[in-house]
Specification:
mainly alpha
Length: about 325
């Protein structure tokens, strides 16, 4: 009896094709991070055009809401299971905390500090997720992750002191702005920690559409309670243009690219690739806003980004 012929492995894709796939994955993941991180620069430009934090945020959410409503209907039609009442309530709570409160205090903080310091402080959220998991979920972090967390916090401290030195006449404003942005990082870390099981149950696209949709409604209600909603439409053409850029390039596109990037690259590679976002933001802030990067800020930025990436790679 003849033995069966040895199985022949399928041919590997040409190296050039594999390189194109890898390059595309890098571009998607990096694009998501760069667009998310450039949001602070767009907000600062809107402030220079004469808007306040609440107006910019309301414009962003007003223009974003129809897109995510349509995305929600589309993803719901493709989903196999309906959303339960409890899941609706959970997503409403996450929308209130993760995008309403977090975005609001972030935009308020940007009125007092530079985009560079905002990115450094906001990049502490991986460390906060790790600490919250250790405290509430009893997940003991690895020693290497603890070292990475200490490096990240050291970077935040160095960058903060550097900006305090550069703005000696507005030290209280810098402290207030950094505190507000840290609160944004804290609420976003809680959002990340509490979203895991619900994202798996509902689906990532449908989850994002519903949660962002709720946050848009919360922001618009907040604005309407403060001033007539008609005031929102009195903004200049330049301001509405910046609001549209913030909605499309700072919210919708990076949200969609993030889902694709996570699926193609995985969480660890995505964290490493995503570190280009804060770097690009510093360049963009220098180019468009005239913000200078001094030695202490550069050292703090490098430490913060390295620590944040290290925690993302090493967390359990």
């Amino acid at each position: 009896m003849k033995s069966p012929p040895p199985s022949i492995p399928p041919p590997k894709p040409p190296r050039s094709a594999a390189g194109r796939i890898s390059l595309l994955t890098f571009g998607i993941a990096a694009g998501s991070s760069i667009l998310f991180c450039s949001k602070g620069v767009m907000v600062k430009l809107a402030y220079r055009a004469g808007a306040d934090a609440m107006t910019v945020l309301a414009m962003r959410m007003l223009l974003t809401l129809p897109i995510f409503v349509a995305l929600g209907f589309w993803s719901n039609a493709r989903a196999g299971a309906s959303i339960s009442r409890q899941q609706w309530l959970q997503m409403a709570g996450l929308g209130f905390m993760g995008y309403y409160v977090s975005s609001l205090v972030n935009f308020l903080g940007l009125q007092y500090i530079s985009v560079g310091l905002e990115r450094i402080v906001l990049y502490s959220y991986p460390v906060l997720v790790m600490l919250a998991a250790a405290i509430f979920l009893k997940q003991k972090p690895r020693p290497a992750a603890i070292v990475a967390a200490v490096v990240a916090w050291l970077g935040i401290g160095v960058a903060f002191l550097g900006e305090m030195h550069l703005n000696q006449g507005a030290g209280g404003g810098v402290a207030l702005g950094a505190g507000l942005v840290f609160l944004s990082a804290l609420t976003y870390a809680a959002f990340i920690l509490l979203s895991g099981q619900l994202v798996s149950a509902v689906g990532s696209t449908r989850f994002t559409a519903v949660v962002v949709g709720f946050s848009c409604v919360f922001i618009l209600i907040h604005y309407a309670l403060q001033r007539p909603i008609s005031d929102l439409f009195q903004g200049s053409r330049e301001l509405w243009g910046l609001g549209a850029m913030l909605a499309i390039f700072g919210t919708v596109l990076p949200s969609l690219l993030m889902g694709v990037g996570l699926r193609r690259a995985g969480a660890q590679r995505f964290a490493v690739i995503g570190s280009v976002g804060p770097v690009f933001t510093l360049f963009l802030a220098w180019l468009l806003l005239g913000e200078e990067l001094h030695l202490t800020q550069a050292i703090g930025f490098c430490l913060s980004v390295c620590g944040g990436v290290g925690v993302s790679l090493l967390k359990q």
